[in-house]
Amino acid sequence: IRCGHKGQVGQVGSVPSVMDVLAAIEHSAFAEWVRTSQSLWAYPGVLFLHTVGLAIVAGISTMVNLRLLGFARTLPIAPIEKFFPIVWAGFWINAVSGAVLFAQDATTKATNPAFVLKMILIALAVAGMVSLRRVVASHPDANTPVSGWGRFLAAATLVLWFGAITAGRLMIYVG
């Protein structure tokens, strides 16, 4: 029975390690196709979808965060809540395409410190977005000042998304 990483043979009944599982994902037919196919639907298409999702999430989140930080003060805050479903659609495009991009190089990405940092920053940014939606929903009009907590969340979420994007770009240079 093959349980070890890189073709090592483990004992019958032994539990595969995390690296064994990641290697199995990486060597699956689908991941191999994404990595090696010349089709535009393979790696280029998945990377394109990842970029589109990122543009939606980062773009709309930036707009919401800047408004909460005091830009465009004449615009009411409450209607901005209608943009959150679009942000979540972009997030899920990113999550699915990101899982495919991860699968095609799982063993390398999982051990890359920039990838780990990116995932932590995304988790924190998502938590910030959930909290920001509550802040946005609690503002009936443009004249209601944003609380200090709301401004902190807006600034923190901006920094977190910027950090996640930067960490994602640094993955090819680190690790």
Short description:
The protein is mainly α. The protein has helices spanning 18-26, 29-36, 43-68, 84-103, 106-110, 113-137, 148-170.
What does this structure look like?
With 175 residues, the chain is mainly alpha-helical. The chain is 66% helix and 0% strand. The chain contains 7 helices and no strands. The chain has helices spanning 18-26, 29-36, 43-68, 84-103, 106-110, 113-137, 148-170. The two termini are 31 Å apart.
Report the uncertain regions. 1-5
Largest sheet entry? none
User: Structural class, judged by helices and strands?
Assistant: mainly alpha
Individual helix count: 7
The pLDDT mean sits at 91
State the distance separating the first and last CA atoms.
31 Å
N to C succession of SSEs: HHHHHHH
Brief descriptors of the model:
175 residues; disordered N terminus; 0% strand; elongated
Secondary structure elements and pairings:
Layout: H1 18-26, H2 29-36, H3 43-68, H4 84-103, H5 106-110, H6 113-137, H7 148-170
